[in-house]
Amino acid sequence: MLSSIFSSLFITLLAFVGMECVAWLAHKYIMHGVGWFLHKDHHQKGTTSFFELNDYFFLIFAIPGIVCLIFGMQAGFNFLFWIGLGITLYGAAYFLVHDIFIHQRFKIFRNTDSFYLRAIRRGHKMHHKHLGKHDGESFGMLWVSMKYFKEAIARNKA
After folding, report:
1. What DSSP line would sit under 89-132, residue for residue?
2. Contacts of 123-126 spanning 24+ positions with Cβ under 8 A
3. Cβ of 64: how many Cβ atoms within 10 Å?
4. CA within 13 Å, CB half, 30
5. Alpha carbons 21 and 13: distance in angstroms, whole number
6. Nearest one of 71, 117, 116, 88 to 19, comparing CA atoms
7. Distances (CA, A) of 29 to 37, 54, 67, 146, 155
């Protein structure tokens, strides 16, 4: 029983961490590649609508999580369910960090003294300074270049 709980948690954690890799690759090679027509408005300043075409990626990435959850439940909560849970939890983290914290789509979590949150906000800001399809850096969401972590730690010490 206990080993079953640990293996389920491990699979969920592995799927969550794996999604950061998937998100990085998808962001760099799909969103800044063939999917640029959906992602481009996310890099434009002054969009007047609350929703962006970029928000379709949320739906696209939710589909594998939903499918895994459904098939995993139908199979007695097998490994697919725990993979789907990891994907879904990553989606929730993405929404909280990217849409709420970084882009302030809802005006909460505005001030932070956390070096980690400052580093990911700075990394994302540096990503957005590039407005073209093929330019850019810092494609991750929960993990950015070490230089941003070092900057944030140095700022905390100052």
Report:
1. HHHHHHIIIIIIIIT-SSS-S-----HHHHHHHHHHHHHHT--S
2. 123/148, 124/98
3. 16
4. 12
5. 13
6. 88
7. 13, 15, 24, 22, 33
pLDDT tens column, 71-114? 999 999 999 999 999 999 999 998 998 888 877 877 777 777 78
Query: How many Cα atoms sit within 13 Å of 71 on the Cβ side?
Result: 10
pLDDT tens for 122-154 read 888 877 776 666 666 667 778 888 888 888 888
Count CB-CB contacts under 10 A for residue 126: 16
Tokens of 33: 């590649």
Per-position DSSP letters for 48-84, written without gaps between them:
-SSS-GGGHHHHHHHHHHHHHHHHHHHTTS-HHHHHH
Q: Per residue in 19-71, pLDDT tens? A: 999 998 998 898 889 989 888 888 777 666 778 888 899 899 999 999 999 99
* For the chain, domain boundaries: 2-157
CA R_g for the chain: 17
Which amino acid, residue 40?
Answer: K
